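TICKET #2291
ISSUE: user wants both folds in one file
ATTACHMENT 1:
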Amino acid sequence: MARIDGRGATRNGTSTRFGLPEREQDGDWLDAREDVDGSPPKLRTTVMIEHPKTILARNGSPDIAFDRSINAYRGCEHGCIYCFARPTHAFHDLSPGIDFESKLFAKPDAPKLLRAELSKRGYRPAPIAMGTNTDPYQPIEKDWRITRDCISILRDCRHPLIITTKSDRVLRDLDLLSDMAKDGLVAIGISVTSLDPRIARTLEPRAPRPAKRLEAIRQIAAAGIPAHVNVAPVIPAITDHEMENILEAAALAGASSASFIIVRLPYEVAPLFRAWLEEHFPDRNAKVMAIINDIRGGRDNDPQFGSRMRGHGVWAELLKTRFRKACIRYGLNMAERLRLRTDLFRPPPGDQMELF
């Protein structure tokens, strides 16, 4: 399959974990495709509707600083080749490759479901995370506004919120988020993988460029919202040399805290990442994978709690040491757990109250 400009994955790939069948190219279509305007049609993003029964996803992972999250969308048009959420598309009999970034699902019922969750008797507030699976501010949020509608409910209920995004589109919701920040109810993390636009274009082809993300950090901090920079993922021999520069730039923009994660390559993601390396960095393909394998105990991925985020061996320790020293140098807090208020929570008003 030829590489598609503007997309992260170089191919669709397949999954057998969730029963996804091997896909075959349609020969008749391939014979005729050059007759359509002389070239294959441009791959366009499509959005389908998903109607989940609940919108709060729960987790008990010791590696994660929250126990509940909201994902307004399934799939992500940003097209980050390393995205660990890619395998979730197999639940819909779609590929973790091109399908994941071009065949998206929106959940317009999310605000209604969130209101119902927060209204349940005995609900105990704790920070809700957005952006843990797919980006809440990917391009389709401009039209669907599902993320904004959910934030509006959380703001009205004085409920704590953590946002992680690669997009400066978060600035469109500063009116809601700055209001929450006054009561210590929100923190925002901006992921910056590289400061090099050329690398960013292939690694995260439809995410805002690095300069826009740094500007988002500046405006978030200026609005009185705790701004966090997440240097993630760090890819050995591709982006690891930029760690200190990213932390310095984020600190100058106003970030108060930082974290980093070494690239993770779950089951279906590893072959897509290897194909991406072969396409864009054939000169160092073997070197990159050798370092990743060394960090992951001899495998492409280590799924074990505890070690999966930190890695093993000299390379992991070297990155950890560099990160710690850079954070000290630039005055960035390395605290792992965010402290947001939960004592201000008030359940959504009932239907009768909404009449007044």
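ATTACHMENT 2:
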Amino acid sequence: MAMGVIFEAMRESRVFADLTPRDRDGRLVALTVPVGLLAAVVAALLGAASACLIVMVVVSGLDGAPAAAALFAVFDDPARASSEGVSSLFLLSVLAGANGAAALAFVGVAGGLMHRAIRRYAFPGPLFRTRLTVAGLSAVGVVMGVVVLAGWLLGAKPPSPPVLDLASTTFGRATYVGFAVVLLVLAAAAEEVVFRGWLLKQTGALTRNPAILMVFNGLLFATIHFDPNLSAFLVRAAMGAGLTWMTLRTGGIELAIGAHAANNIVILMLLRPLSIQPEAAQPFEAGSLVSAVAIAVSYAGLAEAVVRWPAMTGWIGGRGDPAPV
């Protein structure tokens, strides 16, 4: 299929089906950002506090109050999250609670001002297409896992996967992975509903040019992570552009949630542990350009497989048809 035909289908994506003149009202947009950010900050604090309380109650019931209180030591010693599974899960819970609450608050403000149901920033139909998220998780997880394994096989000394260091038993590792996957999916969904949900719809009210939308969304997505390294910035920008392609082609963020979550899961399980320490500046690596292109192309390829491969479209069909090709 010619690129022009694909881009034309993106212009008619169901992401834009419910746009109204309110979305083009500069006064409402100017009000959405500051009020939404203020609501997001307050909600993030409440979400983080709620997550802390829930984890403390659970841990207190299992191991006693001293164990629950000890969890907060991770904020004084961030390295603990890299060496202790419980500390890492606690930190993941806090981050997921904060991100999720902030995202809901922001799109809640946006939806209220634009007279739009919050769910319309995430999926087009009455039901969330869970199978799309599963497809994104599975496909990206498998591909990234194979790439990491190939890197280990070709490397002189493969690093020890973080997941092996965060628990000493098979059951402990499986428990850690299960909780981490759920939390990382929630965290990814929070970012997607803001960037590929609200932001994409809002910018789509001004232009339907897919190239502009992908570049702008990717650059802002990379910028908001505040990583000082140009290599990481380029990779995240490519990831944001690829996730935008996914959303435009499928008409919702379900596939992007799975792909985004799988990326984070593989990184934290196999490459490097969770850390709240700021990233140290690193020299630019030319190989990051190859990685960035590979990510953008693979994400676009997955989206095309979903909307054009009969076996895939048939499997997803029960949850709502993908956007037309």
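RESOLUTION: both attachments delivered.
EXTRA DETAIL ON ATTACHMENT 2: The two ends are 9 Å apart (CA to CA).
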